[in-house]
Amino acid sequence: MKLAGRTALITGAAQGLGAEIARLFAAEGARVLITDLKGDAAATLAEEIGALSHPLDVTREDSWHTALAFARNKLGGLSILVNNAGIPVGGPFEDTTLADWRRAFAVHADGAYLGCRLALPLLRESQPATIVNMASAAAHNARAETAAYGASKAAVCALTRSVALHCAQNGWDIRCNALLPAYADTAMVDSFAPTMPGDILRAKLGAQLPMGRIATAQEVAQGALYLASPTSSFMTGAELRLDGGLSAR
Strand locations in 74-228, DSSP E? Predict the structure, then answer.
């Protein structure tokens, strides 16, 4: 029970990687608050795994205040924050609109910034505490069709380092690290090529990675568990790359 006695808020956790992280954290003893724009889906998963749920739009400061107040009242505080909420944004660079660009940054960069800044008072009360920011291999491994997605995830990496230094320089036992998966087997993958059969799409994506396959959602969740648990107690401001060897090229 690596997270026994800990309390965790996970964003974008009604499905995909967030849901798998929520399941694993609950199984490892944490009291989990599942947050998502899809409040009904979050509530369904929460009932399934014995967690709590609350609607959250990560791009809105008032929504964060409400969710964090709920965490204080219902969980008694917060010792783990996982900024996982994300959206797929892709396509040819010249077809990427300013609205696309701003939406990617609103969800990924603004969402992580608001989560880190507004949750710090709660995390300070529950030290040792940890923040896990979901970035992406796309932050460093550029593709022509992922300009907005990759740039916004690179911003998450830079934010992570600054938050880690802020906490360390203030003498707080609050660690902040980023998790950088490559392609993972979730519904988001299907949005890359909606007309292509899922097994063929996953094989094509896997062929782009040295290990020859994409990650399972469980493998990414294990990475989040490592960063959130005392096992990584001397790790902050770092990036954990779960990319099947992509960054080694």
Answer: 80-83, 129-134, 174-181
| pLDDT by residue, tens only, the chain of 249 residues | 999 999 999 999 999 999 999 999 999 999 999 999 999 999 999 999 999 999 999 999 999 999 999 999 999 999 999 999 999 998 999 999 999 999 999 999 999 999 999 999 999 999 999 999 999 999 999 989 999 999 999 999 999 999 999 999 999 999 999 999 999 999 888 887 778 898 999 999 999 999 999 999 999 999 999 999 999 999 999 999 999 999 998
Alpha helices by DSSP H, 50-97 = 61-70
* Residue 248, number of CB atoms within 10 A of its CB: 8
149/63 Cα distance (integer angstroms): 23
User: At how many degrees (to 10) do helices 98-105 and 147-169 cross?
Assistant: 30
Say if residues 85 and 11 touch (Cβ distance below 8 Å): yes
CA neighbor of 109 nearest in space, from 69, 163, 68, 71: 163
Q: Contact at 8 Å (CB) between 86 and 19?
A: no
Under DSSP, is residue 13 helix (H, G, I), strand (E, B) or coil?
coil
Token match 């974008």: residue?
Answer: 12
Catalytic annotation, pick one of 113, 149, 183, 226:
149
The alpha carbon dihedral of 138, 143, 148, 149 has a sign of negative
CA–CA distance, 33 with 8 (Å, rounded to integer): 6
226 as an active site residue: the answer is no
